């Protein structure tokens, strides 16, 4: 029986690549108008955007975990892509489609458009430090910084009975690692995804911190292979070693990959190579 098709949810590399693309496209543009076509995504879209943003210049775009942070002079627009969210810069803009919930219209007529069929994305506003916003304040270290290493992972896993894969996917442990890259990093580290986190040795934690970083960096490097679909599906990332390949062949030993559910998420691993 074929496993249910999972949506390729954007994780850290997809959000980081979005950030880099939008920074080039948006920096220095002045907002003229905000058009909201849905009152609510995962949270209500703040109505105050229509009065706050016109006249403001987008000074830059930052990222924290899977959140995009737009520096709008007097505050920050915070955007999470959710499961199916996608941000497109359109110049000139096409007519909006069914799932185009929000447009920032710039003074030259170009548009930043938020498209999100499943409406799991978030659009929020803060006049204060965005890193202190309740949505972001509890996020763990960025995996591509020195703060995320084997010592850290060993320390935070000591009292945890949860499976190591679920620990990795918890944004309080580390920012931006979701189902895809957790599967991939555990395969590369030769660690079974269902191991209780507290059973990992310091050596294994070091290996895992390294492979988490490596799978994310590989994906960022291959970013040029991402293609933007016309309307719906946002990303077509790299080929995966295990993710989405349940019952396929292990690229390391040639045996058959196993698929289980952990936290109701598809989890694929090699029972011979990972222990
Ligand atoms: Zn194998």
Short synopsis of the structure:
With 275 residues, the protein is α+β, with helices and mostly antiparallel strands. Helices cover 23% and strands 19% of the residues. It has a four-stranded antiparallel beta sheet.
What labels would you give this structure?
single chain, Helicase, Ruva Protein, domain 3, binds zinc ion, 4-stranded antiparallel beta sheet, alpha+beta, elongated, 6 helices, 23% helix, 275 residues, N-terminal domain of MutM-like DNA repair proteins
Tell me what the structure shows.
- Strand 6 and strand 7 form a beta hairpin.
- Helices cover 23% and strands 19% of the residues.
- It has 275 residues and is of the alpha+beta class.
- The strands form 3 sheets. The chain has a 4-stranded antiparallel beta sheet with strand order 1-6-7-5.
- The longest helix has 20 residues, at 202-221.
- The radius of gyration is 20 Å and the shape is elongated.
- The chain has 2 domains: 12-132, N-terminal domain of MutM-like DNA repair proteins (Alpha-Beta Barrel); 150-269, Helicase, Ruva Protein, domain 3 (Orthogonal Bundle), CATH 1.10.8.
- It contains 6 helices and 10 strands.
- Bound molecules: zinc ion.
- Zinc ion (ZN) binds at residues 250, 252-253, 255, 270, 272-273.
């Amino acid at each position: 029986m074929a496993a249910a098709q999972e949506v390729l949810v954007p994780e850290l590399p997809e959000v980081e690549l979005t950030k880099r693309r939008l920074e080039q496209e948006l920096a220095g543009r002045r907002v003229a108008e905000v058009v909201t076509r849905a009152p609510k995504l995962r949270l209500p879209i703040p109505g105050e955007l229509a009065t706050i943003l016109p006249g403001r210049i987008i000074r830059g775009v930052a990222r924290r975990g899977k959140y995009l942070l737009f520096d709008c002079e007097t505050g920050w627009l915070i955007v999470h892509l959710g499961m199916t969210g996608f941000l497109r810069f359109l110049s000139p803009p096409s007519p909006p489609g069914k799932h185009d919930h929000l447009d920032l219209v710039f003074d030259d007529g170009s548009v930043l458009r938020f498209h999100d069929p499943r409406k799991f994305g978030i659009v929020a506003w803060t006049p204060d430090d965005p890193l202190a916003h309740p949505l972001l304040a509890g996020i763990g270290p960025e995996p591509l910084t020195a703060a995320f290493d084997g010592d850290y992972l060993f320390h935070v896993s000591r009292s945890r009975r949860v499976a190591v894969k679920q620990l990795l996917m918890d944004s309080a442990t580390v920012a931006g690692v979701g189902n895809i890259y957790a599967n991939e990093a555990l395969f590369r580290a030769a660690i079974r995804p269902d191991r209780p986190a507290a059973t990992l040795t310091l050596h294994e934690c070091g290996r895992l911190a390294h492979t988490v970083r490596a799978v994310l960096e590989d994906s960022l490097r291959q970013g040029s292979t991402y293609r933007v679909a016309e309307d719906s599906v946002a990303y077509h990332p790299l080929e995966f070693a295990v993710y989405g390949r349940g019952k396929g062949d292990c690229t390391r030993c040639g045996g058959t990959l196993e698929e289980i559910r952990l936290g109701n998420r598809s989890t694929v691993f090699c029972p011979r190579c990972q222990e």
